[in-house]
Amino acid sequence: MKTKLLILSSLVSFAFLLQAQEISNGVMRFNEQRNPIYREIINIPEVNGYQVLKCDFHTHTVFSDGQVWPTIRVQEAWEGGLDAMAVTDHAERQRHEDFIKIDRNASYELIEELSKKNNIILIRGAEISRQTPPGHFNAIFIEDASSLIKDNANEKDLEAIMKAFEQDAFIFWNHPGWKPNVKGSYEWIPFVEELYKKNALHGIEVINGFGFHMKALDWCIDKGLTVLGNTDAHNLIGRGYDLSEEYVHRTMTLVMVKERTPESVREALKAGRTVAWASKYLVGKEEHVKNLVNACVKLLPSHFSQENQNGTKTNFYEIQNNSDLYFELELTSGKGTKKITLYPMSSQLISAEAGQQSISYDVTTSYVRSDKHLNISFSL
Ligand SMILES: [Zn+2]
Ligand SMILES: [Zn+2]
Protein backbone atom coordinates (compact mmCIF):
# COMPACT_ATOMS: atom_id res chain seq x y z
CA MET A 1 0.00 0.00 0.00
CA LYS A 2 2.83 2.29 0.93
CA THR A 3 4.77 1.52 -2.27
CA LYS A 4 1.73 2.17 -4.40
CA LEU A 5 1.23 5.50 -2.75
CA LEU A 6 4.81 6.47 -3.39
CA ILE A 7 4.58 5.51 -7.06
CA LEU A 8 1.37 7.48 -7.35
CA SER A 9 2.80 10.54 -5.69
CA SER A 10 5.94 10.45 -7.81
CA LEU A 11 3.82 10.12 -10.96
CA VAL A 12 1.84 13.14 -9.88
CA SER A 13 5.06 14.98 -9.16
CA PHE A 14 6.49 14.00 -12.51
CA ALA A 15 3.44 15.30 -14.34
CA PHE A 16 3.76 18.41 -12.28
CA LEU A 17 7.40 18.78 -13.29
CA LEU A 18 6.45 18.56 -16.95
CA GLN A 19 4.04 21.40 -16.50
CA ALA A 20 6.12 23.77 -14.48
CA GLN A 21 8.02 23.94 -11.24
CA GLU A 22 6.26 25.99 -8.64
CA ILE A 23 7.84 29.39 -8.68
CA SER A 24 6.44 32.25 -6.74
CA ASN A 25 7.99 35.52 -5.71
CA GLY A 26 11.25 34.41 -7.30
CA VAL A 27 11.54 31.18 -5.25
CA MET A 28 11.40 27.77 -6.92
CA ARG A 29 10.07 24.96 -4.65
CA PHE A 30 11.13 21.32 -4.99
CA ASN A 31 8.04 19.85 -3.41
CA GLU A 32 8.54 16.57 -5.27
CA GLN A 33 11.37 15.82 -2.83
CA ARG A 34 9.25 16.19 0.26
CA ASN A 35 8.30 13.23 2.39
CA PRO A 36 4.58 12.58 1.90
CA ILE A 37 2.99 13.05 5.31
CA TYR A 38 -0.06 10.98 6.13
CA ARG A 39 -1.48 8.86 8.89
CA GLU A 40 -1.17 5.14 8.29
CA ILE A 41 -4.39 3.15 8.74
CA ILE A 42 -3.86 -0.21 10.41
CA ASN A 43 -6.95 -2.20 9.52
CA ILE A 44 -8.15 -4.52 12.24
CA PRO A 45 -11.85 -5.40 12.39
CA GLU A 46 -13.86 -5.21 15.60
CA VAL A 47 -13.36 -8.20 17.86
CA ASN A 48 -16.64 -9.37 19.43
CA GLY A 49 -17.90 -5.79 19.49
CA TYR A 50 -14.65 -4.32 20.83
CA GLN A 51 -12.65 -1.76 18.84
CA VAL A 52 -8.98 -2.67 18.58
CA LEU A 53 -6.77 0.27 19.52
CA LYS A 54 -3.10 0.42 18.58
CA CYS A 55 -1.08 1.56 21.58
CA ASP A 56 2.48 2.12 22.78
CA PHE A 57 2.79 2.53 26.55
CA HIS A 58 6.57 2.89 26.79
CA THR A 59 8.52 5.72 25.11
CA HIS A 60 11.19 8.20 26.19
CA THR A 61 12.14 11.78 25.38
CA VAL A 62 14.98 14.18 26.21
CA PHE A 63 13.30 14.62 29.59
CA SER A 64 15.03 11.40 30.66
CA ASP A 65 17.54 9.54 28.46
CA GLY A 66 15.71 9.79 25.12
CA GLN A 67 17.00 11.56 22.02
CA VAL A 68 13.86 13.36 20.92
CA TRP A 69 11.67 16.23 21.99
CA PRO A 70 8.17 15.08 23.10
CA THR A 71 6.38 16.54 20.04
CA ILE A 72 8.26 14.06 17.85
CA ARG A 73 6.57 11.22 19.72
CA VAL A 74 3.15 12.60 18.75
CA GLN A 75 4.15 12.96 15.09
CA GLU A 76 5.44 9.40 15.02
CA ALA A 77 2.36 8.03 16.74
CA TRP A 78 0.08 9.85 14.29
CA GLU A 79 2.01 8.72 11.22
CA GLY A 80 2.27 5.15 12.53
CA GLY A 81 -1.49 4.86 13.04
CA LEU A 82 -1.45 4.68 16.85
CA ASP A 83 -4.57 5.50 18.84
CA ALA A 84 -2.97 5.85 22.26
CA MET A 85 0.47 6.34 23.73
CA ALA A 86 2.27 7.11 26.93
CA VAL A 87 5.53 8.97 27.32
CA THR A 88 7.23 7.24 30.23
CA ASP A 89 10.43 9.07 31.01
CA HIS A 90 12.58 7.53 33.73
CA ALA A 91 11.72 9.09 37.08
CA GLU A 92 15.36 8.77 38.20
CA ARG A 93 17.42 9.15 35.07
CA GLN A 94 17.89 12.66 33.68
CA ARG A 95 20.70 12.46 31.15
CA HIS A 96 20.45 16.02 29.91
CA GLU A 97 20.06 17.85 33.18
CA ASP A 98 22.97 20.19 32.47
CA PHE A 99 21.00 21.58 29.55
CA ILE A 100 17.33 20.90 30.25
CA LYS A 101 15.51 21.89 33.42
CA ILE A 102 14.36 18.81 35.29
CA ASP A 103 10.60 18.60 35.24
CA ARG A 104 9.18 15.09 35.30
CA ASN A 105 5.79 16.21 34.09
CA ALA A 106 7.10 18.31 31.20
CA SER A 107 7.11 15.60 28.56
CA TYR A 108 3.38 15.08 29.15
CA GLU A 109 2.42 18.70 29.51
CA LEU A 110 4.31 19.79 26.39
CA ILE A 111 2.21 17.50 24.19
CA GLU A 112 -1.13 17.39 25.95
CA GLU A 113 -2.71 19.85 23.52
CA LEU A 114 -0.91 18.54 20.44
CA SER A 115 -2.10 14.99 21.14
CA LYS A 116 -5.70 16.20 21.28
CA LYS A 117 -5.28 17.98 17.93
CA ASN A 118 -3.83 14.81 16.45
CA ASN A 119 -6.56 12.57 17.85
CA ILE A 120 -4.08 10.59 19.94
CA ILE A 121 -5.05 9.45 23.44
CA LEU A 122 -2.15 10.58 25.62
CA ILE A 123 -1.66 8.77 28.91
CA ARG A 124 0.50 10.21 31.65
CA GLY A 125 3.22 7.83 32.71
CA ALA A 126 6.71 7.32 34.09
CA GLU A 127 9.28 4.55 34.29
CA ILE A 128 10.44 3.71 37.79
CA SER A 129 13.93 2.42 37.10
CA ARG A 130 15.69 0.60 39.91
CA GLN A 131 18.71 -1.67 39.86
CA THR A 132 18.22 -4.98 38.06
CA PRO A 133 16.93 -7.01 39.81
CA PRO A 134 14.20 -5.99 40.41
CA GLY A 135 14.48 -3.81 37.30
CA HIS A 136 12.15 -1.30 35.70
CA PHE A 137 8.43 -0.74 36.12
CA ASN A 138 6.13 1.51 34.14
CA ALA A 139 3.34 3.34 35.89
CA ILE A 140 0.68 4.77 33.59
CA PHE A 141 -2.48 6.72 34.31
CA ILE A 142 -0.55 8.48 37.08
CA GLU A 143 -1.40 11.96 38.29
CA ASP A 144 2.04 13.35 38.98
CA ALA A 145 5.39 11.97 37.84
CA SER A 146 7.47 14.24 40.05
CA SER A 147 6.33 12.53 43.24
CA LEU A 148 7.66 9.17 42.08
CA ILE A 149 11.33 10.02 42.54
CA LYS A 150 13.46 8.75 45.33
CA ASP A 151 13.18 11.19 48.21
CA ASN A 152 16.34 9.87 49.67
CA ALA A 153 18.94 7.26 48.95
CA ASN A 154 17.48 4.91 51.54
CA GLU A 155 14.08 4.68 49.98
CA LYS A 156 13.28 1.10 49.24
CA ASP A 157 12.40 0.00 45.72
CA LEU A 158 9.03 -1.17 46.94
CA GLU A 159 8.15 2.23 48.39
CA ALA A 160 8.91 3.89 45.05
CA ILE A 161 6.45 1.64 43.25
CA MET A 162 3.83 1.91 45.99
CA LYS A 163 3.85 5.68 45.44
CA ALA A 164 2.57 5.00 41.92
CA PHE A 165 0.10 2.50 43.32
CA GLU A 166 -1.24 5.20 45.64
CA GLN A 167 -1.90 7.29 42.52
CA ASP A 168 -4.09 4.45 41.26
CA ALA A 169 -1.67 3.73 38.42
CA PHE A 170 -1.69 0.77 36.08
CA ILE A 171 1.71 -0.78 36.80
CA PHE A 172 3.64 -3.21 34.63
CA TRP A 173 7.06 -4.83 34.81
CA ASN A 174 9.21 -3.77 31.88
CA HIS A 175 11.50 -5.97 29.79
CA PRO A 176 12.04 -8.62 32.54
CA GLY A 177 14.61 -10.46 30.41
CA TRP A 178 16.71 -7.46 29.38
CA LYS A 179 19.72 -8.58 31.45
CA PRO A 180 19.39 -12.38 31.37
CA ASN A 181 22.96 -12.83 32.63
CA VAL A 182 22.35 -10.94 35.84
CA LYS A 183 21.48 -13.51 38.47
CA GLY A 184 17.85 -13.39 39.59
CA SER A 185 16.85 -10.79 37.03
CA TYR A 186 14.77 -12.91 34.66
CA GLU A 187 12.98 -14.78 37.44
CA TRP A 188 9.72 -14.41 39.33
CA ILE A 189 11.58 -12.93 42.29
CA PRO A 190 10.15 -12.35 45.79
CA PHE A 191 10.05 -8.60 45.09
CA VAL A 192 7.72 -9.11 42.15
CA GLU A 193 5.68 -11.61 44.15
CA GLU A 194 5.24 -9.02 46.88
CA LEU A 195 4.02 -6.40 44.41
CA TYR A 196 1.71 -8.95 42.87
CA LYS A 197 0.28 -9.88 46.29
CA LYS A 198 -0.32 -6.23 47.08
CA ASN A 199 -2.23 -5.98 43.79
CA ALA A 200 0.37 -3.43 42.66
CA LEU A 201 1.44 -5.33 39.55
CA HIS A 202 -1.03 -5.45 36.70
CA GLY A 203 0.91 -6.47 33.63
CA ILE A 204 4.24 -7.38 32.08
CA GLU A 205 5.93 -5.97 29.00
CA VAL A 206 6.31 -9.31 27.26
CA ILE A 207 7.60 -7.69 24.08
CA ASN A 208 10.05 -4.82 24.43
CA GLY A 209 11.02 -3.35 21.04
CA PHE A 210 12.67 -6.18 19.13
CA GLY A 211 12.70 -8.71 21.96
CA PHE A 212 10.04 -11.23 23.00
CA HIS A 213 10.62 -12.15 26.64
CA MET A 214 9.07 -15.58 26.33
CA LYS A 215 9.07 -16.66 29.99
CA ALA A 216 7.09 -13.54 30.85
CA LEU A 217 4.20 -14.65 28.64
CA ASP A 218 3.76 -17.74 30.83
CA TRP A 219 3.86 -15.60 33.98
CA CYS A 220 1.10 -13.40 32.56
CA ILE A 221 -1.06 -16.39 31.75
CA ASP A 222 -0.46 -18.25 35.01
CA LYS A 223 -0.96 -15.20 37.20
CA GLY A 224 -3.65 -13.35 35.27
CA LEU A 225 -1.50 -10.34 34.34
CA THR A 226 -1.96 -8.19 31.23
CA VAL A 227 0.32 -8.80 28.23
CA LEU A 228 1.96 -5.68 26.79
CA GLY A 229 4.18 -4.95 23.81
CA ASN A 230 5.88 -1.57 23.50
CA THR A 231 8.74 0.09 21.66
CA ASP A 232 10.66 1.57 24.64
CA ALA A 233 11.83 4.02 21.98
CA HIS A 234 14.65 6.32 23.04
CA ASN A 235 15.55 7.41 19.52
CA LEU A 236 13.41 8.13 16.45
CA ILE A 237 11.00 5.29 15.64
CA GLY A 238 12.19 5.49 12.03
CA ARG A 239 15.76 4.91 13.15
CA GLY A 240 14.87 1.66 14.86
CA TYR A 241 12.27 0.35 12.41
CA ASP A 242 12.69 0.17 8.65
CA LEU A 243 9.45 2.01 7.92
CA SER A 244 10.25 2.27 4.20
CA GLU A 245 9.49 -1.47 3.97
CA GLU A 246 5.94 -2.57 3.39
CA TYR A 247 4.36 -4.35 6.38
CA VAL A 248 6.97 -3.07 8.86
CA HIS A 249 5.38 -1.54 11.92
CA ARG A 250 6.49 -0.48 15.38
CA THR A 251 5.93 -2.91 18.23
CA MET A 252 2.61 -2.20 19.92
CA THR A 253 -0.13 -3.42 22.21
CA LEU A 254 -3.48 -4.09 20.57
CA VAL A 255 -6.11 -3.18 23.14
CA MET A 256 -9.73 -4.28 22.77
CA VAL A 257 -11.85 -1.42 24.05
CA LYS A 258 -15.52 -0.59 24.41
CA GLU A 259 -14.89 3.00 23.31
CA ARG A 260 -11.96 5.02 22.00
CA THR A 261 -11.41 6.86 25.29
CA PRO A 262 -8.69 6.87 27.98
CA GLU A 263 -11.16 5.34 30.47
CA SER A 264 -11.90 2.48 28.10
CA VAL A 265 -8.18 1.86 27.51
CA ARG A 266 -7.71 1.65 31.25
CA GLU A 267 -10.68 -0.68 31.68
CA ALA A 268 -9.40 -2.98 28.92
CA LEU A 269 -5.88 -3.05 30.37
CA LYS A 270 -7.25 -3.93 33.79
CA ALA A 271 -9.40 -6.65 32.23
CA GLY A 272 -6.36 -7.92 30.28
CA ARG A 273 -7.96 -7.62 26.81
CA THR A 274 -4.68 -7.16 24.93
CA VAL A 275 -2.45 -8.81 22.36
CA ALA A 276 1.13 -7.72 21.80
CA TRP A 277 2.04 -7.30 18.11
CA ALA A 278 5.64 -7.19 16.96
CA SER A 279 7.17 -8.11 13.62
CA LYS A 280 4.82 -10.82 12.29
CA TYR A 281 3.94 -12.17 15.74
CA LEU A 282 0.85 -11.92 17.89
CA VAL A 283 1.46 -12.75 21.53
CA GLY A 284 -1.11 -12.98 24.29
CA LYS A 285 -3.59 -15.00 26.22
CA GLU A 286 -5.21 -17.72 24.15
CA GLU A 287 -8.70 -16.31 24.46
CA HIS A 288 -7.71 -12.89 23.11
CA VAL A 289 -5.40 -14.11 20.36
CA LYS A 290 -8.13 -16.50 19.27
CA ASN A 291 -10.83 -13.84 19.20
CA LEU A 292 -8.53 -11.53 17.25
CA VAL A 293 -7.59 -14.18 14.67
CA ASN A 294 -11.22 -15.25 14.28
CA ALA A 295 -12.24 -11.66 13.62
CA CYS A 296 -9.58 -11.27 10.91
CA VAL A 297 -9.54 -14.65 9.16
CA LYS A 298 -12.57 -16.06 7.38
CA LEU A 299 -12.97 -19.27 5.40
CA LEU A 300 -15.57 -18.82 2.65
CA PRO A 301 -17.89 -21.64 1.56
CA SER A 302 -16.35 -23.92 -1.02
CA HIS A 303 -16.67 -22.48 -4.53
CA PHE A 304 -15.57 -25.57 -6.49
CA SER A 305 -15.44 -29.32 -6.08
CA GLN A 306 -13.11 -31.49 -8.11
CA GLU A 307 -13.61 -35.21 -8.77
CA ASN A 308 -10.39 -37.13 -8.37
CA GLN A 309 -9.40 -40.28 -10.30
CA ASN A 310 -9.36 -42.37 -7.15
CA GLY A 311 -13.00 -41.52 -6.49
CA THR A 312 -12.35 -38.86 -3.82
CA LYS A 313 -13.35 -35.21 -4.10
CA THR A 314 -11.32 -32.11 -3.37
CA ASN A 315 -13.09 -28.91 -2.37
CA PHE A 316 -11.60 -25.49 -3.08
CA TYR A 317 -12.02 -22.54 -0.72
CA GLU A 318 -10.94 -18.96 -0.38
CA ILE A 319 -9.51 -17.98 2.96
CA GLN A 320 -9.52 -14.24 3.67
CA ASN A 321 -7.48 -12.00 5.91
CA ASN A 322 -9.55 -8.86 6.51
CA SER A 323 -6.81 -7.08 8.45
CA ASP A 324 -3.35 -5.60 8.18
CA LEU A 325 -2.03 -8.35 10.42
CA TYR A 326 -0.05 -11.22 8.93
CA PHE A 327 -0.59 -14.93 9.56
CA GLU A 328 1.23 -18.15 8.79
CA LEU A 329 -0.76 -21.35 9.31
CA GLU A 330 0.35 -24.98 9.42
CA LEU A 331 -2.04 -27.91 9.17
CA THR A 332 -2.31 -29.94 12.38
CA SER A 333 -5.31 -32.18 11.68
CA GLY A 334 -7.39 -33.11 8.65
CA LYS A 335 -6.48 -33.37 4.99
CA GLY A 336 -5.91 -30.10 3.20
CA THR A 337 -3.42 -27.42 2.24
CA LYS A 338 -0.45 -27.84 4.56
CA LYS A 339 0.87 -24.29 4.84
CA ILE A 340 -0.94 -21.02 4.33
CA THR A 341 0.52 -17.52 4.35
CA LEU A 342 -2.07 -14.79 4.77
CA TYR A 343 -0.70 -11.42 3.75
CA PRO A 344 -2.41 -8.24 4.98
CA MET A 345 -5.81 -7.55 3.38
CA SER A 346 -5.67 -10.47 0.99
CA SER A 347 -6.96 -13.96 0.39
CA GLN A 348 -5.50 -17.33 -0.52
CA LEU A 349 -6.81 -20.39 -2.27
CA ILE A 350 -6.81 -23.60 -0.25
CA SER A 351 -8.15 -27.07 -0.79
CA ALA A 352 -9.37 -29.85 1.46
CA GLU A 353 -10.56 -33.37 0.92
CA ALA A 354 -14.36 -33.54 0.80
CA GLY A 355 -16.29 -35.33 3.51
CA GLN A 356 -14.36 -33.93 6.52
CA GLN A 357 -16.15 -32.00 9.26
CA SER A 358 -13.26 -29.64 9.90
CA ILE A 359 -9.54 -29.00 9.56
CA SER A 360 -7.21 -27.42 12.10
CA TYR A 361 -4.17 -25.22 11.85
CA ASP A 362 -1.52 -23.87 14.16
CA VAL A 363 -1.07 -20.13 13.69
CA THR A 364 2.72 -20.30 13.80
CA THR A 365 2.99 -16.52 13.91
CA SER A 366 1.23 -16.49 17.26
CA TYR A 367 2.18 -17.46 20.80
CA VAL A 368 -0.33 -18.23 23.52
CA ARG A 369 2.39 -19.65 25.78
CA SER A 370 6.16 -19.63 25.37
CA ASP A 371 5.97 -23.07 23.72
CA LYS A 372 2.51 -23.02 22.18
CA HIS A 373 0.88 -21.51 19.11
CA LEU A 374 -2.80 -20.77 18.77
CA ASN A 375 -4.66 -23.64 17.11
CA ILE A 376 -7.77 -22.83 15.09
CA SER A 377 -10.35 -25.02 13.41
CA PHE A 378 -12.42 -24.33 10.33
CA SER A 379 -15.65 -26.20 9.82
CA LEU A 380 -15.99 -27.35 6.23
ZN1 LIG B 1 16.06 4.65 29.15
ZN1 LIG C 1 13.61 0.32 31.11
Brief summary of the model shown:
It contains ten helices and 22 strands.
Task: Provide a descriptive summary of the structure in words.
This protein is α+β, with helices and mostly antiparallel strands and 380 residues long. The protein contains 10 helices and 22 strands. The strands form 4 sheets. Strands 3, 4, 5, 6, 7, 8, 9, 10, 11, 12, 13 and 21 form a 12-stranded mixed sheet that branches. Strands 14, 15, 16 and 19 form a 4-stranded antiparallel sheet that branches. Strands 18-17-20-22 form a 4-stranded antiparallel sheet. The longest helix has 18 residues, at 2-19. One zinc ion (ZN) is lined by residues 60, 65, 90, 234.
List the defining traits of the structure above.
380 residues, alpha+beta, TIM Barrel, Immunoglobulin-like, 3 domains, 12-stranded mixed sheet, 24% helix, 29% strand, globular, binds zinc ion
SSE topology sketch:
Elements: H1 2-19, E1 22-24, E2 27-29, E3 51-56, H2 70-79, E4 84-87, H3 106-109, H4 112-117, E5 121-129, E6 136-140, H5 157-166, E7 170-173, H6 190-197, E8 203-208, E9 211-212, H7 214-223, E10 226-230, H8 237-240, E11 252-257, H9 262-271, E12 274-278, E13 281-284, H10 286-296, E14 297-299, E15 304-307, E16 313-321, E17 327-333, E18 339-342, E19 346-353, E20 358-363, E21 366-367, E22 374-379
Parallel strand pairs: 3-4, 4-5, 7-8, 8-10, 13-21
Antiparallel strand pairs: 1-2, 3-11, 5-6, 6-7, 8-9, 11-12, 12-13, 14-16, 15-16, 16-19, 17-18, 17-20, 20-22
Bound molecules: zinc ion (2 copies).
